[in-house]
Structure formats: C-alpha cells, structure tokens
Amino acid sequence: MNSELFLDIPCLIERSLQSVGDQWSILILRDAHSGIRRFDEFRKSLGIAPTILTKRLAMLTETGLLEKKRYSERPPRDEYLLTEAGIDFLPVLFMIGAWGRKHRAGGNVVRFYDALAGTEIDAIAIDKATGSPIGSREIRVVLPD
After folding, report:
1. CB atoms within 10 A of CB 37
2. CA nearest 82: which of 72, 96, 97, 68?
3. How far apart are CA 50 and CA 55, in angstroms?
4. Which CA distances in Å does 85 have to 20, 72, 75, 102, 124?
5. 124 Ramachandran zone, left/alpha/beta (phi>0; psi -120 to 50)
6. Which H or E run contains 82?
7. How would residue 23 be classed by pLDDT, with cut points 50, 70 and 90?
8. DSSP SS3 for 70
C-alpha cells in the first residue's frame, strides 16, 4: 500500500474512513474476522452484487487491510487474508457493535463470546493514558499547524 495515500487528510478519523470505506467494506472485514476468505463465501454471506464485492475487495487490498493470495492456478482463484491493519480493525468492529447494542438493540441479534472465558464480549473503549472510558471526559481537539 502507498503509505502516503491519505497524508493530506489531517483528521485520523476521516483518513481511516477513507481507508475502510463504506458499510460493505466494514461487513467484509467483519466476515474476514469470522474466517471467510474467498469471493464466493463473501458473496453468499453478504448477499452483495459481484461488481460491488470486487470493488470493495480491491479497495481493502489497496489500502492494506486485506492481502490477496492465489490459492488455485487452474482455474485462477484468490483468497483474501487479513493484514496486520485488518486484524487491528477488530476492536473497531466491536465498538460499532457496542454502540448498536445501546442504540439499535431489539429482536434477535448476533452475540460474540470470548472463546477462552466463555463470556459474552461487552466492549468499551478506554484511554490508554488515563484508563478512563472514552466519552466519560470532555475532549479537546487540536488542529495541525
């Protein structure tokens, strides 16, 4: 990936959204974390049009969240593996889910469990420096010079 791709965008939230893309891209990353790797598996899971899926996979590959690997030469077939950046996106997915649990709950919903502890995951974001939950303190935004 071109590491200078988004350097002209000073806000890291905006820069990150430019890298991740839209709803489909985020759902592709969700599915990749659940073990889906192949085009047809993504298509079946998401019910997405092939042209849209092709574009989103190319964008996620270009921005370094997925890596395309050939698994068959005849016929040519590729799979999409999470990169370090893609793996690091998992907590973001859980924070989106935590927001949804609070503001969009109801009906039957998918639940996620810690495989070792057996407990349901209830994600919160913590500031590393203070240990405080993000959103519990006032923030100050500092623009670049």
Report:
1. 16
2. 68
3. 9
4. 10, 25, 29, 27, 20
5. beta
6. strand 77-82
7. very high
8. strand
Positions of E strands within 1-127: 66-72, 77-82
Q: Which amino acid is at 30?
A: R
Q: Please write the tens of the pLDDT for every residue from 7-21.
A: 788 888 998 998 887
CB 97 within 8 A of CB 52: no
The pTM of the full predicted model, rounded to 2 decimals, is 0.89
User: H or E segment at 15?
Assistant: helix 12-20
pLDDT tops 80 at residue 113: yes
Question: How far, in whole angstroms, is CA 118 from its chain's centroid?
Answer: 23
pLDDT for residue 4: 63
Confidence of residue 5 (pLDDT cuts 50, 70, 90): low
Rg of the chain over all Cα atoms, to the nearest angstrom: 18
Structure tokens at 65: 């969240």
User: Which of 83, 90, 95 lies closest to 133, judged by CA?
Assistant: 95
